[in-house]
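Here is one such protein, fold included:

. . .
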Amino acid sequence: MAITRYTLGTLEALKTALEATGLFNDTQYDDDTTPTNVLCYDEDDHLIFEATSNSFKAYKSGGTYISCGGSSYGVPTYLYTFSTQAAVIHLGNAKANASTCIVMGKTNTGTVGFAFPRTVGATSVNADVSTMSVAAWDDPDDMTSLLTISGSTPMEGNSTEIVHIPMHGAYGEPEYIEDAFFIPMAQSGMRSLMQEIVDSDGKSYLTNGWVAVLDGGES
């Protein structure tokens, strides 16, 4: 299955690409704000995702949210869509690490889940992508723990382990993005580069070495 890449650079291009993901029931401009925002709603008209030219928010049902960006280092450059129900926004400019990205996709509970880089910085690879904040509409407000993908010394090996990206589901009710994964163990040298990999079953993924999104087949 083909991975489609949308080139961003304007708010109009971002809105068009977000619509192409198929994850949102409605996508609108909020012209009452400065700067203008793009607002994305689910099928129940809940605002679940908000984007400007360089900042992003994903909302929980109680009104809390996770966020990232807000500086010249978090400019969206590309958006990737897949044959599965998931998408990736690549962030960066000349000063930002090339592997920083936002992951979004349908969860096993039917909501849209989001995984944001903890920070979007100019120099430190690990500060940008080794930990992520996660959110979905039905997540508890008081759950704010971070997803730690690797420490300052990455766990590397000759094989790569992928694990579903979890949300903050209720106790005893696991919630995760169905077609998106984090990589606690990676092959040496595969990180910090957006690339396509194929597993032993012939399934294709887009990855930056920290997270991976499935393209085609079942997760």
The helical segments are 11-20, 125-129.
